[in-house]
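Retry 2 of 3 after timeout on previous attempt. Resubmitting structure tokens to design endpoint.
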């Protein structure tokens, strides 16, 4: 199923939300001063986090409106529709509360040239978020502040950079001095990331080009808080030579934290499962994660621009690299380290265990101020059920999982908060730095 298009421009639910249609259609590359103008990033973030889009929940009219708005932005950036002449591709959602619902991926293409034109780089960011705090009937008015999850950093930030990268790449390709041989690029905004990476899994299962022509995915998720610390780049070991390319792209001297694997849970992991190299950009844990306070004023706009410029330089280099991107398996840390050995005892998470009986998992009696757990937004009473892909059933299994990671690792942590399952990406610390 695909949305109807008229003259190459998306037509769909966004027409019911005129504010977004008018802004999206009126903002052409010529009207917006430059590829990385601060006002452009702010405007896109404000649109995606507005009450009218109600947190962009998967399978909701507001989520569909967000998808159509992003499609217009990609159209205005100068891309061509990716799905056989269409910008959007619908797919069925899975999960008990989502059965019978659909959502969409949004994608545009920029064709390469020369000997590398048939090879592809995928640049991705998910546009969906958690929706409303409480479910609402169809046609309900926009929620008030505190009644929905704006998802500014997660992941309006990534979408704003995705659009900027598309515009910059189109402009660069129009330059007569550009390299003759360069890869094609698929710019894709995934739906349903928050409910199990369903959009990326769907695209990897049936991509718009032969899957064996995809060389690498560059995924952006929660990249709007650079002022809080370093830029984390994961996946540098998934193909030879990536670390050198990342170093060349860092001409701004940004503080980088590199990891060989890329096993934190965002859409790039769907590509890793298909043995496609992946790079993941992330600016670290933050207190507002998965809270109604993750709104656009909390974004670091200058940091967004820094990340966008870094990613733009990296993308240009990735497109013209003559060597193949030969996939290399980087095993998750839990598979590389024997937890029974005396390793990684300084890895710090920053929680106090609750020893109450009858709990399957590791329940938190509290979190230390300034700890990785506290910065990520975890709270007293949360029950950790998975840590870095390892099942957590008690304090012992949590300790084994923690010690399988080193300070500085990015770890996917799943908790239960009441009846709700929540996923966090946590940057682990060193006890000596407390």
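Retry 2 succeeded. Sequence:
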């Amino acid at each position: 199923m695909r949305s109807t298009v008229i003259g190459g421009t998306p037509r769909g639910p966004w027409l019911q939300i005129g504010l977004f249609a008018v802004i999206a259609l009126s903002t052409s590359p010529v009207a917006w001063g430059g590829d990385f103008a601060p006002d452009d990033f702010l405007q896109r973030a404000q649109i995606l986090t507005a009450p009218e889009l109600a947190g962009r929940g998967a399978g909701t009219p507001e989520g569909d409106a967000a998808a159509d708005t992003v499609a217009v932005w990609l159209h205005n950036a100068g891309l061509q529709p990716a799905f056989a002449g269409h910008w959007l591709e619908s797919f069925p959602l899975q999960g008990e509360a989502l059965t019978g619902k659909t959502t969409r991926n949004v994608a545009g293409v920029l064709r390469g040239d020369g000997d590398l034109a048939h090879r592809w780089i995928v640049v991705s960011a998910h546009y969906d978020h958690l929706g409303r705090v409480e479910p609402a009937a169809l046609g309900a008015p926009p929620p008030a502040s505190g009644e929905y999850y704006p998802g500014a950093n997660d992941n309006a930030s990534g979408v704003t950079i995705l659009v900027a990268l598309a515009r910059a790449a189109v402009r660069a390709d129009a330059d007569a001095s550009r390299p003759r041989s360069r890869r094609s690029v698929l710019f894709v905004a995934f739906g349903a990331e928050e409910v199990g990476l369903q959009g990326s899994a769907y695209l990897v299962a049936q991509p718009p080009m032969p899957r064996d022509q995809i060389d690498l995915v560059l995924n952006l998720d929660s990249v709007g808080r650079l002022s809080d610390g370093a830029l984390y780049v994961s996946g540098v070991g998934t193909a030879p030579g990536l670390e050198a390319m990342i170093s060349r792209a860092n001409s701004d001297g940004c503080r980088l934290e590199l990891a060989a694997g890329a096993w934190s849970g965002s859409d790039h992991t769907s590509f890793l499962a298909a043995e496609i190299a992946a790079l993941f950009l992330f600016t670290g844990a933050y207190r507002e994660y998965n809270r109604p306070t993750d709104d656009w004023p909390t974004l670091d706009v200058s940091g967004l621009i820094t990340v966008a410029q870094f990613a733009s330089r990296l993308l240009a280099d990735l497109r013209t690299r003559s060597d193949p991107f030969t996939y290399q398996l980087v095993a998750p840390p839990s598979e590389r380290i024997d937890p029974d050995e005396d390793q990684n005892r300084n890895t710090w998470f920053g929680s106090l265990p609750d020893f109450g009986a009858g709990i399957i998992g590791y329940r938190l009696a509290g979190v230390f101020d300034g700890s990785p757990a506290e910065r990520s937004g975890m709270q007293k009473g949360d029950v950790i059920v998975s840590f870095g892909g390892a099942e957590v059933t008690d304090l012992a299994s949590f300790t084994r999982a923690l010690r399988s990671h080193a300070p500085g690792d990015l770890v996917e942590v799943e908790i239960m908060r009441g009846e709700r399952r929540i996923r966090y990406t946590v940057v682990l610390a060193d006890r000596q730095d407390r």
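Attempt log closed. The chain has two domains: 5-320, 335-433.
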